[in-house]
Amino acid sequence: MSERPLMRSAPRGGQTEITPDAPAAPAHLDDETRWLTPLASAGPAHERAVRELHGLLLRASTFEVRRRAAAFGLAGSSELDDIAAHAAGDALLAVLARLERFERRSRFTTWAYKFAIHTSGVAVRRHAWRERELTADSREQLERLSARADDPAEAAQTRELLGRIAQAIALLTEHQRSVLLALTVDGVPIDVLADRLSTNRNALYKTLHDARARLRSLLEHEETTA
Question: Would the pLDDT of 45 be above 80?
Fold first, then answer.
């Protein structure tokens, strides 16, 4: 059975006339008229669009902050509201600074929500770690890893692998060792570690990549010479 266009009744001269409903505007046109054009302009239209967008981002941030806070076991509604408000503000600034990068592969609001989710996640992780100290001496972390290698509860194959990894980690540079152990053994969020080391995520990703590559090389060399 073929589909028929939606119809509506429109009174004319006492008669009822059947006319097709106007087709909905394509999503990309709605994004252009409702969001992109006013946000890229100035004046009242821009201000209205910014206020509306901030409201959407605030709702997304509030939901995401509370969801992530629950996972960390955090409480305190007023404090979480402040975190969500700051995250929404950061997300709004990020969206406005990147309008030209919107490639229209999704709805604009879907694209914008991703910034709220990211900034909320960063904010909650920083809040959860605000009073936690990082391990200053990587030897303590290596000892914990070595202790697992000696734990009878671990399978023999796992103990052997952990022991080899601990020995290889000891041969890394001090910076590679501290970054690798903080991120993989202590579970420090990379945003938090970047703040504490006065660096950025990209630099830490590079260090982590280099450390893992060095570890693979050391372990492979050990296997070939064993």
Answer: yes
